Structures
1.
Amino acid sequence: MAVDVLTETVIRRPPAEVESGRARPLSRSFLGRRMAYTYEVVELVPNERLVMRTAEGPFPMETTYTWEATPEGWTRMTLRNRGMPTGFSRLMAPMMSLAMRRATKKDLARLKTLLE
């Protein structure tokens, strides 16, 4: 089962400010375990989109950040994580999707608080 989690928020700052303020943790806790990732940047369109992939581990994943100006001049930011779990991780895919959704909502809320 593939995992595809999309979250978004509107941050009251222009896209260039939001894009430059992003943080990409290379290590984090997920489902009670400390996980470290090495990301490869595969696409970067300044002030619009950043796509990164992990090349290792039991859960290869692609992470996409997008920044889009709203009519008010703020930023609609989306964060999408997609991947195909392998091995034991495959059995946990539905639970991983829920946990990823919670974690990414929390990440975007934290970024919103920091930037506003």
2.
Amino acid sequence: MLAPVRERAALADLEREIAVPGFGLDRLQLVETPFVPEVRLHLAEDAIVWWARMEAAAGHPLPPPYWASAWAGGQALARHLLDHPELAAGRRVLDLAAGSGLVAIAAALAGADQVVANDIDPYAVAAVTVNARANRVVVAATADDLLDSTVTADLLVAGDILYDAALAERVLPFLQRAAARGAEVLVGDPDRGHLPLGRLKVVASYPVPTTEPSVDSPVRRVQVLRPA
């Protein structure tokens, strides 16, 4: 592990390398993920406050910093992969809507042959790059919109991606096409209200610590699902 001063200097160098203005990694905390302590992530203590500071620094509106939080669905998926490394070991893995890169990093730690983390937010791509380096794993990050493309991965993982009805309408056909082509598909969802009845079946269920501002309980029950 790098000493704090050396680690922050390395982050500053990486920020310049990534060239994402206002990213401000030095103001995030590198911490163990609550439900997946094997993985350390750069997270905001309060993502809402962090968002406001980012927008003030950038001087214009920015997308929500989903990459600065460890969402419950991603934590459950990452835990599932680390507890069942045979799911990822030796395989090509795609982490869709990767956010911080938590699930992608867990797949790499589980022995995946190749890991790609995809998120259309360029800040998330930067976060994945930094977080993968902090965990000493190799993860390729891309900001392309893949939902109309063809999946070539062996394992497709997606945490907390069914949070919006319109997005779910695009994501579900993509997941089903991937499964039809032979990819194993796993979704982590804390029941945000957009799970389609009969189209996904439960593989596992986990009580996951959560710090989401809109959730009263400190623990959420999260399901890991696959297409039926």
3.
Amino acid sequence: MTSHIHNHPKGRKHGRKMRPARLHALNSQNDKYAVTISNNTPRNLPPQKPLALEIGFGNGEHLLNLAALNPDTGFIGAEIYINGIARCLHRLADDPLPNIRIFNGDCRLLLAALPDQSLAAVYILFPDPWPKTRHHKRRLVQPDFLDLLAARMRPDAALHFASDDIGYQAHTLAFVLAHPAFAWPAAAAPHPAAVWSAAPPPSRYRRKARKTGKSAPHFKFTRRLRSS
């Protein structure tokens, strides 16, 4: 049952008036790439397996790079910001990628509809940190969200998280490490701060963090083979 999940996530859904080319891409490409949910079943998923999910892909730089580098993997991007979706579809109109699909809505609705153990990787990169204490409950990473995520991830699947907000970094570490379904392999290394050696594909959020001198570590957690 998913009746408690509503398609009204907190955050900005619209921006400035779109440029005509992006509006045209949104209107002409949406049916090709959009994932919809009918009778709690996702429609138009990418045919490639395994599947990976990026939650909150912004303008799609990271998502598009990953999909281009991994043509045999299916990628789903979940995003509520329609202007970002339009920018992503504009790029896809020029350079189509058959292994990408886009879900415009609350990622929890999509996760609730996906089959168990269907995801090989999940990316949550630079989510809204909701820095005020009274807004911490709005942060995406919460125990009930991790329960849902764990059910949809395959054993040994990777959960990638990045943030330039120190408070959200600590928040995520606390909740993920307290969850029985997830492990942090880097915690057992001699230098746990070296969370992931491979450089992720660029995004405007990571470039912004570097420009302002903020630390933006990339955490890689794994879905345990068996919850303890």
